[in-house]
Amino acid sequence: MLHNPPIILAIESSCDDTAAAVIKGRKILSNCIANQEVHIAYGGVVPELASRAHQSKIVPVIQQALQKANIDKKDLTAIAYTQGPGLLGSLLVGSAFAKSLSLALNIPLIPINHMQGHLLVHFIDDELILTPTFPCLGVTVSGGHTQLVLMHDHDSMVIIGTTIDDAIGEAFDKCGKRMGLTYPSGPQIDKLAKEGNPHRFSFPIPNLKGYDVSYSGVKTAVINFLSNQEQKDPDFIKSNLNDLCASIQYTLVQIILNKIIKVAREKKLTQIIIGGGVAANSEIRTQLQKSAAKEGWTVSLPPFEYTTDNAAMIGIAAYYKLQNEAFGGYSDPSEARLKYGI
Question: What is the pTM of this model?
Fold first, then answer.
C-alpha cells in the first residue's frame, strides 16, 4: 500500500560518503551522512577503502536516519538508492542493502541517477530553497562531473554540455595539490582566495565550440606556471598563495560561467539551478548572482547541506519517480558510468 504522502528511505553510496535520508512527500525528515576521513592521507578517494568503509557504516547510518525521522521501517512506502554513476564497489554496497530491505519489507525499489539527484534538490520542500519553474538550465559542478542540463520537467533532462576532460572539482583539487594544499583542496582555495586578488595572475580560458567545457588545459597551465616561478623563487607559492588561489578560482569559475551565459541567451532560459559539491564555492555563487542581476535570471542556489553527496537528493528524485510508478527490479545492475535519463 502506498502512503499519502509517501515515506521513502533513500540511500546514497556513490563515492566516499555513506548517507541515508527519510523523506515524507517533499519534506526531509532526516538527512544523515557518515564521512570517510581515511582518504585524506592518500590525497584522493581510494575505491577499495571506500567500499569497505561503506560496509561498516551503512547499517548505523540508516538506523540513525530512521530514528531521527521517528519512522519505523514498517511505515516506509519505498526504498531508493543510487544506481550510478560512481565507484562500482561503493555503489554495490548501497544497492545490495536497498534491494535486501525492499525484499524483506515487500515495498517498491527505486534506482536513482546520482547526477539528477544533485539538481532535483531544488524541489525539496524547504523554506531555504527557491523552487524553480520549467524549463530551466541545470548546472552540475563536482569533483567528477561538470554538466549543463536542459531540464524540461522532473523526469525529462538532457545534457547539452559537459567537460571534455577534467571536471571543475578535479581541477580545483589538482591545482591545490600542486600548491601543497591537502585533499580536498577546493574549500581551502575558496577560503584563501577571499584574501587574494583574482586578477593578479592570468590563466587561459578555453573557448570551445558549443556548450562543452575543458579544464585540463588551465590545470596544466597553472602547474607549468608554478614550476617556472619556483625556479626563480623557491618560495613563490608560499609568498603569493592568496593571490594564486583567487586567480585560479576566478579562472575555473569563469570557464563554466561563460557557457552558462551562452546557453541561457541562446536557449532563452531565465531559470538557472546549480548542484554538486562545487556549488558550495563562494565565487561561483557570487558570479551567478551578479550575472543574474545583469541577465535577468532567477538563480536557485542549494543550501550547503545539499551540495555535497547526500541522501536527501536521492529521496526527492525517488519521490518524483514514485509518482510515475517508475520502479526498479532486483536484477538492476549498479553502473559506474550510468547514462543520463530517468
Answer: 0.92
pLDDT tens per residue, range 69-110: 999 999 999 999 999 999 898 999 999 999 999 999 999 999
Question: β-pairing, 271-275 with 78-84?
Answer: unpaired
SS (H, E, C) 50-62: HHHHHHHHHHHHH
- What is each CA distance from 243 to 92, 326, 334, in whole angstroms? 43, 50, 43
Angstrom distance (rounded) from CA 170 to CA 154: 28
Return the H-helix or E-strand segment holding 35: none
Q: How many structural domains does the chain have?
A: 2
Q: Residue 146: inside a domain, yes or no?
A: yes
Residue 237: per-residue pLDDT:
97
- Per-residue confidence (pLDDT) for residue 39, from 0 to 100: 42
* pLDDT for res 340: 79
The single residue listed with the C-alpha cell 525484499 is 103
Q: Classify residue 338 by its DSSP letter.
A: P
CA distances from 185 to 39, 99, 122, 337 (A): 13, 35, 26, 25
Residue 290, domain CATH: 3.30.420.40
Give the integer Cα–Cα distance in Å for 172 and 219: 8
Distance of CA 312 to the CA centre of its chain: 12
Q: Cis bond leading into 198, ω under 30°?
A: no
pLDDT per position as a tens digit, 201-259:
999 999 899 999 999 999 999 999 999 999 999 999 999 999 999 999 999 999 999 99
Specify whether 212 is located in the same domain as 147.
Answer: yes
Closest among 236, 279, 224 to 256, alpha carbons compared: 279
CA-to-CA dists, residue 199 to 97, 251, 268, angstroms: 50, 9, 31
Give the domain range for residue 205. 131-301
User: Are residues 222 and 255 in contact, defined by beta-carbon separation less than 8 angstroms?
Assistant: no
Position 2 in a domain: no
**What cell does 318 get?**
525517488
Query: Residue 229 carries which side chain, given as an amino acid letter?
Result: Q
**Percent of residues in the chain assigned helix, strand, coil, to nearest 5:** 45, 20, 35
